[in-house]
């Protein structure tokens, strides 16, 4: 049933030129915000309070390469730094130090990326990345290379520590309580190539690769501690997806790959009003070579070039993570976003690093997402998002040459349904009012005091209003 109604009131101001700032007052009465809303908006989940205040300031100057960005949430005696970082821009390259949000809030898609969706709180990181596609070296000498450019990202970050995560290793036994007493590291890199077919069309092929490594894991159930070295030697092996460190040996495998690796191979076709794409997720060497069939995120985005029509844009996405190379390990049971050495998986403070519809305890799904944008008037936009599909089963355990389906005690095909409506209206004196409505039916996995698993179907409702005021000096 509907738990509570959330009222979200946001008052923002933007100052252009040397600096910009914003201030928000947020009323929130539910801890479990709908995923479909959080896919488009960031609200810190750990702040279980009725009202939040948000203040953001950005210091920059157009003719200077440096930018300083800060963003804090506070309520009474609770203060949280959400963003704080420096960005240094040199032509097509950026250097980022600190916590800066890379989420694209303008996209209509509900899933920004299957592995790196930026829905979580910004990570503490050092990044060297491109801010646009860059021509290949010596491309002016070879005609074929003139049509090829590339973009890149090379980042190293730190995940959270002391966040308590509860997982059920064998399904039919009590859950384990685990946390990181020393934060693991996250290495991430990407390299995308763009080939210009003609002046109006291009193709993109990209590789994204990341790994969780280092840190210290505490298992309260077994009262064990596992330490992983944060040495530069280990980082070198992580970057090149190598093994050979004893502390990572497991399952009678000696010299296994260091850390938990995850990534995607991205395919995109672009036209002036059309984008087709497929993000193929991989968890190990087998799924990298498509042992997991066509698991991943499929999408199409269509933009209307006729300004006289109300329908402005359509986005269709299909998330399929069901196959996972089969139900027997090896080579199957890829268990996206979960790992036996890092049981809290691909999360930061409980929020998925990628699509919000994949988590360590809910990673086999088939969900369809439909989004549309209507331009009712020049000053009135209406976005309608809906999603529905199936969530097949909850698991984390990887037996050795065991069929994992034999371990299931909850053979449910969970139904997921959600709708989110956002109305954006510009009125006099540069005011903008945004109205939000979202309702979602989802599977909630919780645990009793004795750590027995409880599965419920929850409905969450969200109502909100943003009031935005823009002005310049």
3D architecture notes:
- With 473 residues, this protein is mainly β.
- It has a domain at 94-422.
- The protein has helices at residues 35-38, 232-239, 285-288, and strands at residues 9-12, 19-27, 51-60, 66-75, 78-90, 93-99, 124-130, 134-135, 148-158, 165-167, 176-182, 185-198, 201-213, 215-219, 224-228, 260-271, 274-282, 296-303, 311-320, 347-348, 351-352, 365-377, 380-391, 414-427, 431-447, 453-469.
- It has a 20-stranded mixed beta sheet that branches.
- A hairpin with a 2-residue loop joins strand 5 and strand 6 (93-99).
- The protein starts with 8 loop residues before the first strand and ends with a strand.
Structural class: mainly beta
N- and C-termini, Cα separation: 48 Å
Quaternary structure of the protein: single chain
Mean pLDDT: 83
* Helix content class: under 10%
Characterize the main sheet. Answer: 20 strands, mixed
* Succession of helices and strands: EEHEEEEEEEEEEEEEHEEHEEEEEEEEE
Number of strand elements: 26
Work out the radius of gyration. 23 Å
How much of the sequence lies in strands comes to: over 45%
Tertiary shape = globular
Count of helical stretches = 3
Low-pLDDT residue spans: 1-20
Write out key terms for the chains shown.
473 residues, mainly beta, 20-stranded mixed β-sheet, four-stranded antiparallel β-sheet, 3 helices, 3% helix, 50% strand, globular, disordered N terminus
């Amino acid at each position: 049933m509907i738990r509570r109604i959330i009222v979200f009131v946001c008052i923002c101001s933007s100052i252009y030129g040397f600096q910009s700032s914003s201030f928000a007052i947020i009323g929130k009465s539910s801890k479990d915000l709908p995923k479909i809303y959080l896919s488009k908006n960031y609200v810190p989940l750990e702040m279980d309070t009725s009202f939040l205040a948000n203040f953001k300031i950005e210091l920059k100057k157009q003719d200077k390469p440096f930018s300083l960005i800060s963003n804090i949430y506070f309520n009474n005696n609770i203060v949280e730094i959400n963003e704080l970082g420096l960005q240094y821009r040199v032509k097509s390259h950026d250097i980022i130090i600190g916590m800066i949000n890379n989420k694209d809030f303008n996209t209509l898609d509900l899933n920004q990326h299957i592995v790196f969706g930026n829905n979580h709180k910004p990570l503490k990181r050092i990044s060297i990345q491109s801010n646009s596609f860059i021509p290949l070296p010596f491309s002016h000498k070879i005609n074929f290379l003139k049509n090829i450019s590339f973009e890149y990202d090379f980042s190293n970050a730190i995940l959270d520590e002391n966040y308590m995560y509860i997982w059920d290793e064998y399904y039919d036994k009590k859950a384990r309580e685990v946390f990181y007493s020393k934060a693991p590291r996250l290495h991430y890199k990407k390299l995308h190539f763009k080939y210009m077919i003609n002046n109006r069309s291009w193709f993109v092929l990209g590789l994204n690769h990341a790994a969780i490594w280092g840190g210290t894991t505490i298992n309260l159930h077994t009262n064990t501690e596992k330490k992983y070295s944060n040495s530069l030697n280990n980082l070198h092996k992580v970057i090149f997806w190598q093994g050979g460190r004893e502390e990572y040996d497991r399952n009678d495998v000696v010299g296994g790959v260091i850390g938990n690796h995850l990534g995607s191979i991205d395919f995109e076709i672009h036209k002036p009003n059309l984008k087709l794409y497929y993000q193929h997720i991989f968890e190990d060497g087998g799924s990298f070579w498509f042992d997991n069939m066509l698991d991943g995120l499929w999408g199409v985005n269509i933009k209307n070039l006729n300004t006289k029509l109300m329908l402005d844009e359509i986005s269709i996405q299909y998330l399929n993570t069901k196959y996972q190379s089969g139900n027997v390990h090896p080579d199957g049971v890829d268990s996206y976003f979960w790992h036996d050495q890092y049981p809290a998986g691909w999360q930061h403070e409980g929020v998925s690093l990628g699509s919000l519809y994949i988590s360590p305890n809910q990673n086999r799904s088939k969900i369809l997402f439909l989004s549309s944008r209507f331009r009712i008037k020049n000053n009135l936009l209406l976005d309608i998002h809906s999603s529905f599909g199936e969530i097949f089963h909850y698991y984390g355990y990887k037996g050795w040459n065991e069929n994992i389906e034999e371990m299931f005690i909850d053979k449910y095909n969970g139904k997921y349904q959600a709708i989110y409506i956002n109305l954006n209206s510009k009125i006099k004196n540069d005011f903008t009012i945004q109205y939000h409505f979202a309702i979602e039916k989802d599977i909630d996995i919780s645990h009793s005091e004795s750590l027995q698993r409880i599965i419920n179907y929850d409905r969450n409702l969200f109502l909100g209003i943003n009031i935005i005021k823009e002005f310049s000096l």
